[in-house]
Design goal:
This protein folds into three domains: 267 residues, no CATH class; 139 residues, 3-Layer(aba) Sandwich (Protein Transport Mog1p, Chain A), CATH 3.40.1000; 42 residues, no CATH class. It is built from 16 helices and 18 strands.
Length: 479
């Protein structure tokens, strides 16, 4: 048996050979990837991201974000990298960076920002992740602890030792996460100052996102669902966090000009006309209805169900998430039958209670996969496209408790009518100059945002929960 003492030198050798100088701190970090490998990884990941997450087809907006990002990147610790900034066509509140200088911000986040300085704060934070090689350091830590676990398991003969080491590695990575996020905030504030922006825009963004996150969680709780927030200290720390205040204050000392740029008007003009919420390319959710103009598709869901439109699946569930129905698509040869498509999809699983149906331009079949966790499945074929449904439940059944709802969704499949096409038009961000006597309550009555219109307008303009309008100011409205 190999002694644990004989493994220790191997682990030490691993740690020593995996050290490299951090370009930000000048200290040695544990990494197992060269810069060339980092850049290659970033290029590969970026190509995959852009296959799965479409970008906004607005060249002017993309160029604006790229320009702001480049101003910051030029002042960063790794200004030799070729940074690429892109706007993702998604209503989600998110931004992220890949190793090597590939940065993405969702248009959903752009809608809630109110100045170029706030945009710069988000981009600066993500640049900080790149310059400090956070992605590389996290991956190296995972690789290192995984190898350590394998060595310990091999040396001791105790299988659980490897699992324990991997758990330790996961805890280390998650622990570093908070420090890395704070470091990225500090670096972002520094790059803001050096590029002529207000470093305390970092705090503004945290306030915006905390408000949006609080409202979203209140709404989600009322609907019995969960909500995902933007990662990092932007979402998890209050603006009065002492360490955050300190890094922002340190950045203030680096300002190169007495006039620090805010750029509110420039930013608002840049995002005017941007799609708000769902886009036609991804499909539009209106209440309990789903419309997709490019696919010529309309669906209707039961009252109170929550519809979640994702790039690879259209998912809807009951408010308590006890049951859900998912819709995916796949290409099929012309002339394919719905029964054959469904049989191929479910494989060797037995089908019962099969039923065929048809509509304008399509044929369909639906059946049940029996068992303790029975599922309702269906395939609808139209031309070379197959629309595949799976309805399932968790917890107590039987399927009959939910099957009428599943069947109602499947049978609602239809091509768009003229009225559907009108309802399927996207909403856009528009600018409105406030007049004397205007109020959020009044503007909400004219808004298409529904019962939460007033709260949404306040959030979009940084006035949630009770800010008031000022005559002459530019306001974001949704039309």
């Amino acid at each position: 048996m190999i002694s644990i003492l004989r493994i220790a030198p191997l682990v030490l050798l691993l740690l020593l050979t995996g050290c490299a100088v951090n370009p930000v701190t000048g200290k040695k970090d544990f990494v197992m990837m060269s810069e060339a490998q980092e850049l290659a990884l970033g290029r590969q990941a970026s190509a995959q991201i852009e296959q799965q997450m479409p970008l906004v087809e607005d060249a002017a907006l993309q160029a604006y974000v790229q320009n702001v990002g480049e101003k910051l990147a030029q002042k960063s610790h790794r200004n030799q990298l070729n940074y690429e900034f892109a706007v993702v066509d998604s209503p989600d509140i998110n931004a992220f960076a890949l190793p090597g200088g590939y940065l993405y911000i969702h248009r959903g986040l752009l809608a809630y920002l109110n100045s170029e300085a706030e945009l710069a704060a988000v981009l600066g934070h993500e640049i900080g992740h790149v310059t400090a090689r956070h992605g590389v350091r996290q991956q190296s830590m995972s690789m290192g602890t995984g190898l350590l676990g394998a060595l310990v398991a091999a040396g001791t003969g105790v299988r659980a030792a490897g699992d324990l080491s991997n758990m330790l590695g996961t805890a280390l990575v998650r622990g570093y996460g908070r420090d890395m996020e704070l470091e990225a905030d500090g670096l972002g504030a520094e790059y803001l100052a050096r590029a002529g922006y207000r470093p305390d825009a970092v705090l503004d963004v945290i306030g915006v996102l905390k408000n949006q996150d609080s409202f979203a969680r209140e709404r989600a709780a009322a609907q019995g669902r969960q909500v995902a927030g933007y990662h990092g200290l932007f979402a998890t720390h209050p603006t009065h966090d002492q360490r955050l205040q300190e890094v922002v204050a340190q950045a203030q000392n680096l300002t190169v000009d007495a006039t620090q740029r805010t750029g509110r008007d420039e930013y608002l003009k840049a995002i005017e006309g941007m799609v708000y919420g769902d886009s036609p390319e991804q499909g539009i959710v209106r209440g309990r209805n789903f419309y997709h103009t490019q696919l010529n598709l309309a669906l209707e869901y039961p009252p109170s169900w929550v519809v979640v439109n994702q790039p690879d699946v259209l998912l809807a569930h009951t408010p308590d998430q006890s049951a859900f129905i998912a819709l995916t698509m796949q290409a099929v040869p012309d002339g394919s039958g719905a029964e054959d498509v469904l049989a191929q999809r479910v494989g060797n699983q037995r089908l019962v209670a099969a039923e065929n149906f048809s509509g304008k331009g399509f044929t369909g079949t639906t059946a049940v996969i029996p068992g303790d966790q029975a599922r309702r499945v269906a395939a609808i074929v139209r031309g070379g496209q197959a629309f595949l449904f799976v309805g399932a439940f968790k917890g107590r059944g039987p399927l009959e408790n939910y099957d009428d709802a599943f069947l109602s969704v499947i049978r609602s499949f239809r091509p768009l009518s003229a009225a559907d096409r009108k309802r399927a038009q996207p909403l856009h961000v528009r600018l409105y100059r406030v007049r004397r006597g205007d109020s959020y309550e009044q503007l909400a009555e004219e808004s298409p945002l529904g019962e939460q219109a007033e709260a949404q307008l306040r959030l979009l303009n940084g006035d949630w929960p009770d800010g008031q309008l000022k005559a002459g100011q530019w306001l974001k409205v949704i039309r």
